[in-house]
Every structure is written in C-alpha cells, then in structure tokens.
Amino acid sequence: MKPRPSFEEVYMQFAETIARRSTCKRLAVGTVITTTDYRKVLAVGYNGNASGLSNSCDREEPGNCGCLHSEENAVINCDAPRHTEKYVFVTHLPCAACAKRLINMGNVRKVIYKNDYRKSCSLDLLESVGIPVHQFIEKTETD
User: Fold this and answer.
1) What residues form DSSP beta bridges with 48?
2) CA-based angle 87:92:93, to the nearest 5?
3) Annotated catalytic residue: which of 71, 127, 138, 141?
4) φ/ψ (deg, to 5) at 102
5) Which residues contact 82 (CB under 8 A, 6 or more apart)?
6) Which of 23, 48, 63, 130 is packed most tightly, with the most Cβ within 10 A?
7) Using an 8 Å Cβ cutoff, are 57 and 65 in contact?
C-alpha cells in the first residue's frame, strides 16, 4: 500500500504549482487558503501584476517590483466570511505587509510556509495576534 500524502503536503504542492503562474522575474510565490478541516480550498493567489496590466514587473528593485504578492491576491480572492476558520499555505514566509493582510482577513488559525523570506519580521507580527506559523519540512523517502 503506497503512503498517502498529508493534507499539508497536498496543499503545499498546490501552492508550489500555482506559483508557476507568477509573472514576477525575481521570485515565484504561491498561496492556498483552506478550511481548517482541509475539505475546501477558499482561495488561491500568486504574485504578479494586476489583471489587465502587462504580465511583467514594473521595476527591477527587489521587494518593490510592482507585483501584487501572492498572499495579497489570495486575500482578494477569498470570499469566505471572516468567521470561517482558515489555514494559509505559502511557498515563502509572508512579508510584514502580507502578514497584516492575513490578520485582517480574519480567523486565520495557522500559516504554513516552505521557504524563508529575506525578512522574518512577519513571524513576530503573526504570533503577536495568536496565529501560529510553521515551516513546512518536506518528508523524504527515509522519513
């Protein structure tokens, strides 16, 4: 019997897959927002320019390329009520501004990210409001 992937593995792989739609030159990031029972995907997002604009960065400056962040797009796309409890899967640790967007979305119960970001101040922001943050560690064949 082959081992079944955990829901965290499935949704992190989904975040990595949706990140492939990114149009940012520097970093492709994907976000998936689910219910806490993992039964529904509430929203997805990836980083890139606004709808209808050129599929490219506006500037070359890291952190200021003009692209909307994946978490930002996922929050925009999430029409679940604030009272719905949510898990957020992100390919990279959110920046401070995206952490604040996730906080304002309401009822985020956990943020799971795979890769570190160049700044980690979002960890303190999220944890200060009671949102646990966990780094996803991919299991290997020997685990």
Assistant:
1) 68
2) 70
3) 71
4) -65, -40
5) 105, 106, 107
6) 48
7) yes
d(CA 1, CA 76): 40
> How far apart are the C-alpha atoms of 44 and 22, rounded to whole Å?
12
pTM above 0.85, yes or no: yes
* Cα Rg of the chain (Å, integer): 15
127 in active site: no
Distance in angstroms (rounded) separating the CA atoms of residues 128 and 125: 5
Neighbour tally for 52: CB within 10 Å: 5
Token code pair at residue 143? 């685990």
H runs (alpha helix) in the chain: 7-19, 70-77, 96-105, 121-128
The string of pLDDT tens digits covering residues 24-54 is 988 999 999 999 999 999 999 999 999 999 9
